[in-house]
Amino acid sequence: MAMETPAEVYCCRRLKRFVLSFKAEHARVPNIGDKLSSFC
Description:
Oligomer: single chain
Structural class: mainly alpha
Radius of gyration: 12 Å
Helix content: 55-70%
Shape: elongated
Largest sheet: none
């Protein structure tokens, strides 16, 4: 596993939090949250 800089780790946490809220808002759109979360 590659080493992540603190900025990348922070960005990834923000992205994951965004994905969770995005999934909640777009629950009827299948797999879109999974596609977003695959970036991390």
